[in-house]
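Design a sequence for this backbone.
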């Protein structure tokens, strides 16, 4: 999978993409992430990427032209499955959506800033708008990093244990059951006996029951 991210703060991604599973996926050649500084596509000498809103009011609005030039340059090189704009009024990012997106080949992700991007970008250049939750962040960079992480970990071969993504919360509409590791008894805080029994089928049953129980209690709407 190839992901092209359009941003005015490419440095913001150096943390999330240089560690852990996303980094491993890139090292293995299973995911490629390319960062594009929208400022490089600005046309004036001040490398302007935003301007005052028509109609007045607070905050700046991101200009159409630099973003369109960047998207056009990418589209001239290859076909993209989706051009995604991270936006608080978009579709809520969830596991089924991450699963669907993880099968795509080429994606563009646009990160907004300030008051957001000129609406005409959304009308004419964007194919999909995604929100990471009902709250407003300062920019689309953290949301884009979240989307990339959620999607990249699902690409076959990325996770060490192939089955591990399938047993995560929200796959099958169930939350994950509780997990434990050594020691079996920590100051009297004990691990459930069943997990020490070595009885695989019973352990699987117990885990399923726990997952159902937890989902009923915490997120009944998923059931
Ligand atoms: N004025 C806009 C918010 C702009 S926030 C509004 O009220 O809807 C600036 C940028 O941050 C947005 O363009 C978007 O790219 C990003 N952003 C902020 N919150 C987000 C969220 N919950 N999900 C996805 N992107 C978000």
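Sequence:
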């Amino acid at each position: 999978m190839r992901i092209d991210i359009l941003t005015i703060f490419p440095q913001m991604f150096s943390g999330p993409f240089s560690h852990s599973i996303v980094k491993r996926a890139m090292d293995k050649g299973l995911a490629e992430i390319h960062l594009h500084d929208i400022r490089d596509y600005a046309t004036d000498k001040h490398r302007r990427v935003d301007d005052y809103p028509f109609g007045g009011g607070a905050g700046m609005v991101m200009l159409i032209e630099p973003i369109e030039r960047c998207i056009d340059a990418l589209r001239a090189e290859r076909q993209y499955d989706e051009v995604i704009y991270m936006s608080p009024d978009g579709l809520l990012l969830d596991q089924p959506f991450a699963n669907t997106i993880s099968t795509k080949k080429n994606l563009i992700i646009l990160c907004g800033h300030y008051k957001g991007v000129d609406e005409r970008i959304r009308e004419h250049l964007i194919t999909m708008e995604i929100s990471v939750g009902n709250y407003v962040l300062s920019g689309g960079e953290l949301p884009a990093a979240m989307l990339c992480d959620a999607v990249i970990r699902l690409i076959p071969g990325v996770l060490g244990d192939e089955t591990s993504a399938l047993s995560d919360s929200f796959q099958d509409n169930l939350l994950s059951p509780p997990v434990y590791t050594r020691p079996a008894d920590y100051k009297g805080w004990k691990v459930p006996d069943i997990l020490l029994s070595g009885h695989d089928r019973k352990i699987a049953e117990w885990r399923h029951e726990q997952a159902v129980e937890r989902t009923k209690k915490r997120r009944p709407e998923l059931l």
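Residues 86-89, 111-113, 115-116, 131-133, 135-137, 139-140, 143 surround S-adenosyl-L-homocysteine (CB under 6 Å).
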